Amino acid sequence: MKNRLFIFTLFLIIISCKAQVIGTLEQFEECASRPNHDEGCPDLENITYVKDTNNRLDQFVGIWKGTSNGKQFEIHFEKQLQWGDGIKWDRIFGRMIIKDNSGNILYNSLNKSLTDTGLLRGDNFQHRSYVMSFVGNYDCLESGDVFIETRINNPNEMKLFYSQDKDGLLNPAKCPNFSTFVSLLPTQKMTLTKQ
C-alpha cells in the first residue's frame, strides 16, 4: 500500500512539473536575422530558458578599461544565468565608472543593483557583436544600444560602440542643458583592455 501511494505521489509530482524547454542564444540570433523575424519564430515559441550553451558570453566577463574623448572608462561585466521574468535568459550586465582626465567622477553605477537603471543590460548577439541596452539620463535622451565585441586575434581587447536613440520625447524643463549635453558613452568606436 505504501509503495502504491509513493508511486502515485511521484507520478503526480512529475506530471505537475512543467518541463523547462531550453533554447540557445544562437537560435535566437538566427531567428532575429530571418527576413520574417517580425512575425516571430514559431519553432521557438515554447522556449522557457535561452541558455548560453557555448559559453560565448564568458569572453566579456571581467573588468575592462579604456579612454575616449577625454574620459576614462572602467566597466565591470558579469554574467547572470536564467535572468528575467517569463522566459529566462543568460545575460551580461555591465556596471561602470566614468571619470574625466582630472579623475573627477562623471558617472558611477558600480553599486547599483541589477534592477536599477543606468546599467548596461545584455540582449543577444548580432553576428560577432553582443548587443546591450543603456538608459542613463532618459530626460536628455541618454539611451540606446551598446555593441561590444572582442578581437579575434586578441581576446583581451574589446571594441565598444554606442548608438544613441534619436527618437523620444524631450522635456526641456527636465534637461535644460540639452543643446550642450554630451553623451556619457562614446558614439565612436572605443577600445577597452581587459584587466
Automatic annotation (TrEMBL):
Keyword Signal recorded: yes
Per the UniProt entry, the signal peptide is 1-19
Per UniProt, what is one Pfam family of this protein? Answer: DUF6705
* Taxonomic superkingdom: Bacteria
Q: Which InterPro entries match?
A: DUF6705
Tell me the organism. Answer: Chryseobacterium tagetis
Q: What is the lineage of its organism?
A: Bacteria, Pseudomonadati, Bacteroidota, Flavobacteriia, Flavobacteriales
- Record-given protein name: DUF6705 domain-containing protein
Instruction: Describe the location of the DUF6705 domain by residue ranges.
Output: 1-139
Q: Which residues form a coiled coil?
A: none
Q: Which UniProt keywords apply?
A: Signal
